[in-house]
């Protein structure tokens, strides 16, 4: 069964998130769809969403702390308020835009894995690395596992090539299967693909060998499109 995850990034408000979540919930219930669906809203839009029984709400990011003096961050105290036990770690925008180091990411991973959180751990190479070929790409990607316990039982991986994120340029099927099969031969965990996944290509991508689902940004932010994405992959 495909895993379908929507990363809202810095999109939607508290109000529009609530209506999005309710609509997806109704859609899954009405159509009796049992796909494994995740939504990662902004931290300001996290809530208990007590109508939700059909899918999982996760945090896009949190600091490796329960609480304390970390201006602008949230910790497990804030996540516990809404029973959130799922987190994205290592997203490309955290690494490359916000400057999170592998060391900080590994620390975060250790903290949240110790607490049993489901972790969606993201990896992926920038364009200049991709242009050097598959071997260099894999070398780069493997470095992103430094300090990460890849045997952690509640781990899902997401391969998101940086050059494919938010660009409209999806990786080719060959690009995806090459990297996925290499990672899968080393780490036996569910592996999502992310990077310009769209309504039109999500089914084909989810059907590729070694692909267990999709982590979607832009194409998932309109609720009708996200429902269509779920519909298109419900039997994959
Ligand atoms: P896009 O789907 O907008 O390319 O974003 C992918 C992503 O970063 C999901 O985490």
User: The CATH topology is what?
Assistant: TIM Barrel
> Could you describe the largest sheet, including whether it forms a barrel?
8 strands, parallel
Number of helical regions: 9
C-alpha geometry: globular
In what range is the share of β-strand residues?
5-15%
Instruction: Give the cofactors and ligands.
Output: 1,3-dihydroxyacetonephosphate
Features:
alpha/beta; TIM Barrel; 9 helices; 8 strands
Structure, briefly:
The protein has helices at 14-30, 76-80, 92-97, 102-114, 127-130, 134-143, 173-186, 202-206, 223-233; strands at residues 3-7, 36-40, 56-57, 86-89, 118-123, 155-159, 191-194, 213-216. By secondary structure, it is an alpha/beta fold.
Topology at a glance:
Layout (H helix, E strand, L loop, with lengths): L2 E5 L6 H17 L5 E5 L15 E2 L18 H5 L5 E4 L2 H6 L4 H13 L3 E6 L3 H4 L3 H10 L11 E5 L13 H14 L4 E4 L7 H5 L6 E4 L6 H11 L3
Parallel strand pairs: 1-2, 1-8, 2-3, 4-5, 5-6, 6-7, 7-8
The structure holds 1,3-dihydroxyacetonephosphate.
The site of 1,3-dihydroxyacetonephosphate (13P) has 14 residues, from strand 8.
What do these coordinates show?
- The chain is of the alpha/beta class and 236 residues long.
- The chain has 9 helices and 8 strands.
- It has helices spanning 14-30, 76-80, 92-97, 102-114, 127-130, 134-143, 173-186, 202-206, 223-233; strands at residues 3-7, 36-40, 56-57, 86-89, 118-123, 155-159, 191-194, 213-216.
- The radius of gyration is 17 Å and the shape is globular.
- The site of 1,3-dihydroxyacetonephosphate has 14 residues, from strand 8.
């Amino acid at each position: 069964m495909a895993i379908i995850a929507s990363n809202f990034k810095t999109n939607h408000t508290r109000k529009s998130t609530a209506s999005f979540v309710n609509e997806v919930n109704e859609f899954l219930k009405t159509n009796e769809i049992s796909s494994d669906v995740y939504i990662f809203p902004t931290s300001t839009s996290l809530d208990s969403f007590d109508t939700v029984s059909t899918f999982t709400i996760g945090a896009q990011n949190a600091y490796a702390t329960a609480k304390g003096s970390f201006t602008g961050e949230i910790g497990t105290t804030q996540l516990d308020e809404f029973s959130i036990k799922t987190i994205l770690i290592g997203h490309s925008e955290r690494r490359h835009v916000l400057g999170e180091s592998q060391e900080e990411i590994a620390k975060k991973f250790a903290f949240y894995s110790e607490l049993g959180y489901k972790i969606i751990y993201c990896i992926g190479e920038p364009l200049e690395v991709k242009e050097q070929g598959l071997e260099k790409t894999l070398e780069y990607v493997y470095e992103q596992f430094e300090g990460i316990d890849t045997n952690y039982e509640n781990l899902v991986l997401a391969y998101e090539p940086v050059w494919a994120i938010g660009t409209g340029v999806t990786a080719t099927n060959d690009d995806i299967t090459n990297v996925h099969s290499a990672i899968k031969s080393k780490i036996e965990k569910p592996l999502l693909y992310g990077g310009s996944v769209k309504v039109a290509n999500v089914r084909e991508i989810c059907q590729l060998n070694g692909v267990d689902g999709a982590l979607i940004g832009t194409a998932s932010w309109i609720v009708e499109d996200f429902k269509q994405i779920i519909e298109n992959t419900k039997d994959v």
